[in-house]
Amino acid sequence: MPDLLLELFSEEIPARMQAKAADDLRRMVTDKLVAEGLVYEGAKAFATPRRLALTVHGIPARQPDLKTERRGPKVGAPDAAVQGFLKATGLKSLDEAKIQRDPKGDFYIGLIEKPGRDAIDVLAEILPVIIRTFPWPKSMRWGARSGKPGSLSWVRPLHAITATFGPETEEPDIVKFEVDGIETGQTTYGHRFMAPSAISVRRFEDYEAKLKAAKVILDPQARKDIIFADAKELTFAQGFELVEDQVLLDEVSGLVEWPVVMMGSFEEEYLAIPDEVIRATIRNNQKCFVVKDPKTGKLTNKFVLTANIEATDGGKVIVSGNERVIRPRLSDAKFFYETDLKTKLEDRLPKFEQIVFHEKLGTQAARITRIERLAAEIAPLVGADVAKATRAAHLAKADLLTEVVGEFPEVQGLMGKYYALAQGEDASVAAACEEHYKPQGPADYVPTDPVSVAVALADKIDTLVGFWAIDEKPTGSKDPYALRRAALGVIRLIAENALRLSLMKVAASALAGLSVKPADAQKLPSDLLAFFADRLKVQLREQGARHDLVDAVFALGGQDDLLMIVRRVEALGKFLDSDDGKNLLAGTKRASNILSIEEKKDKRTFDGAPDAALYSLAEEKALAKAIGEVKAEASAAVAKEDFAAAMSAMAKLRPPVDAFFDKVRVNDDDAKVRENRLKLLNEIRSATRAVADFSKIQD
Fold it and tell me: Which terminus of the chain faces fewer neighbouring Cβ atoms within 10 Å, N or C?
């Protein structure tokens, strides 16, 4: 079966756009092929700085013929309806139509045959449309071509389109079309400097091999592997170790078509700068990797760069050029760092009085004051020293006003730690300056130092309560203030540090510190708690737990101790995985369903204790006795926070519940007996609510 080779050759495509562009090209072409009835065997897309390429193999040479039946008017219908039917189906007369009998009468049926087209003609139709409508995040138009102004919007000027189609055993055909004056062919170009001549290609294997011979590695993953392996080998050979950076590796592989790894150096005096600042300087400005000493773990005065050319001088000029650029950048960073050290963190704080955090929530200075107060309240709850937590909260945001953070925002917090240590602050206070932003995502680490935990919780809860108070909550996919991330951070801080605190009380305290008061201040903490419940469900679902169990626990009400909720959910999940748990859930659901039906029918509830004198069957008495024992045992276990024991107690209900439904007729003819048995069913529901609301649990 024939294969398609498509290449779009252009000026340099930004590295950040390449991976998505390759995926978009594959998706758009293959979706169109399938829509046209051309089901392919496989497809793969590639990107380099100067080209997008796609190979699709196993495409049928021709579309299948289509035969469809179209129902027409009734036999004897007016002539206008008949003529419309003939025109729509392409029939010459009604003699070519079939008649189909129907309870409503006899109808004409026309058979429409649509012959398939050659796949190459279909490709010539769909490919230019895809090119013209390609979803670049940013695109441009450029000068006139052949005297006509260009109309194509593309990421960078497009120079050539290669499009061939054919089976392996034959010379492929060119898929003929043109876009903005660019006609398709089978000519591409190699490396811009080392092999710029035109190359004639036929199919993908031929194309990939000829590009490699022309100093172009087509596959982005292959370029990454070369850069990574060569960089590790180069640093190891000199007794150093590469500081791995996957994000930078992805970017660098999109900047070169023929990666050549080299090593440069800088003056040792710059090692006085914190490692993270050196790395940010070299990474951000020159896209180079930093190198560390494996013995000390500290950075060395070396860096690794990736060139796009095999230089005749072995790369001396390239290395020298990078060193010449990096040196003044590091000099600037050193100046910024040394300048920052001359001013104490607290001396920077008055500037926050002129910086607005949010127009409705006041200045950064006001926010720092709120965080200080809240951190002091949270500190005893998490085992932190109140004075240290207050001091850390006071200084935590100060590094935002430093020169280094102004130049490299990604080191905020971290620089606060360095500056705090430099001015003699307590180690826990300094650590909290960095760690109060943590965790910033599901993969980020969670602080364990109590002072860091107190300030991190205060920072996140103040943010959440503040934006809830001004009704700036997340909606759908929009979350401009990262409130979902803040809530997840609170959950992880509490769960992973096994903390016991009431979210409702902390939220109410944070609300009291706000100058703005919402219309319904009493409702805000409970609304926020519901948001935490949603975030907890998401987290548990990602961990493989059942989110419906969170609903079952939260439905009991008054649950704002997240650690206990997590533990209760874990115990409930293990219980429901057992046979006892599954069967008790089924029995409880059956009891709830019967109750719901009968309560709706009678327009009343069946609350209140059953009358033991009305028990006539042993199964009723056994169930009533078991419910009494289990309810007391489970409640006592829950009070001691022994949820595993509570679940074990619940398991004792299974045999009497099973026996009750097997032997007892609930809707007895005697109205009093029926009411008593319905009250007994309500007791089952009530007993299980000692651990969870079983009605919220999915079967």
Answer: C
